[in-house]
Structure formats: structure tokens, C-alpha cells
Amino acid sequence: MRADLVRYFRARVSDNDVAEDLAQDVLARVHRSLDGLRDERVLGPWVGRIARNRLTDHYRQKGRAQPAPPIDTPGEAESNDLDAELNRLVGGWLMAMIEHLPDGYRDALRLAEIEGLRQQEVADRLGLSLSGAKSRIQRGRQLLRRDLARCCEVEFDRRGNVVDIQPRGSTCC
Questions:
Q1: CB of 111 within 8 A of CB of 142?
Q2: 156 - beta bridge partners?
Q3: What is the mean predicted confidence (pLDDT) over 38-60?
Q4: Domain count across the chain
Q5: Interval 53-67 mean pLDDT
Q6: Taking the CB of the first residue and of the last residue of the chain, which one, N or C, has fewer CB atoms within 10 A?
Q7: Are 59 and 100 within one domain?
Q8: Would you say residue 36 has pLDDT above 50?
Q9: Which residues contact 156 (CB under 8 A, 6 or more apart)?
């Protein structure tokens, strides 16, 4: 189970030490709460939910604790670092926003965008037709775009990287 958790987190965070820490934290939470588990058949999904929630918490904390540094005409290397940091920061917000989508859209979007599954694989996993999975993914993207636009004005370059972000007076970004 530990190796699976570490692999899960390594695919989602850029630092191996952070992935190890997150996996260890999930295992500690599982250990503390194991007495409350009534049906052992749901152990895997239960641990998965704890891991997803911990990842969401990690990105929320990272978003609050590490605001993007000020831009003072940086050199190209510094600019690339700032771009990467801004993309990670926005990625953390998007992860948190995805968690607040309705179940069907959240699950479809998570499988397609975060886990990188093809739409047919999403359909198979969720027990949907291919067209049903495509609809849920598309609608989930629309809901996510709407939610992001409500709290922030985000400018992207032609490759989809975040160029600028301005809050609209809310605390969500």
C-alpha cells in the first residue's frame, strides 16, 4: 500500500520528498482511523479518498504559503522558474476547485485531466457510454472554467501556460 501511495503522490507533486511525506501522512491517518472502518471491502477506495483529500490539502496549503514572487524584470532562467511556479500554484487551485465539482463531473474530470486516462477508459471506469463520458468531461471543464472565472482573471499564453492572474476580490486564488 505504501508503494502505491508514494507512486500516486510522485505522479502529482514535483518533489520526491514531499511525495514520501504525503504518503506517510496518509498511512498515519489510515492507522488512526482504521477502527472506524466497518467494511474491509472498501479499504482501497477509503484510502484513495484519504489520499485525494490529503493532496487537495497539500495544494491548498502550498497556494497560501507560497505566493508568487514579485517580478522585477527577471532574467530568462528566473522567468521560466516564475512561470513554472505560477503554473504549479494555479494547478493547486484547480485541484481544489475540481474537488468541489458535483460527483459525476469531478470524477470524470479527475480521471481524464489528472490521471491522464483516455475518454474511453474514463467511460469504462465510470460505467458510462463513450459519449456520456465525453459529455461529463466537457461539462466538468465548463464548470471548472466558470468557477475559476468567478474568482480570478487568468491570462494564458498560446501553449496554455499562465501568464498573469488577478483575483476578483475573493480568496479562492
A1: no
A2: 162
A3: 77
A4: 2
A5: 70
A6: N
A7: no
A8: yes
A9: 162, 163
> Over 70: is that where the pLDDT of 104 sits?
yes
Joined together, the cell numbers standing for residue 98 give 475540481
The residue segments making up the domain with residue 26 are: 1-65
| 86 and 167 assigned to the same domain | yes
Q: How far is CA 6 from the centre of its chain?
A: 16
Whether residue 7 has pLDDT greater than 90: no
C-alpha dihedral (163, 14, 105, 129), degrees to nearest 10 = 110
Q: Say if pTM beats, i.e. exceeds, 0.85.
A: no
Q: Is the dihedral of CA 17, 19, 20, 26 positive or negative?
A: positive
CA distances (Å), origin 2, targets 8, 18, 27: 10, 14, 7
Residue 125 banded pLDDT, cuts 50, 70, 90: very high
For 107, the grid coordinates are 470524477
**167 shares a domain with 141:** yes
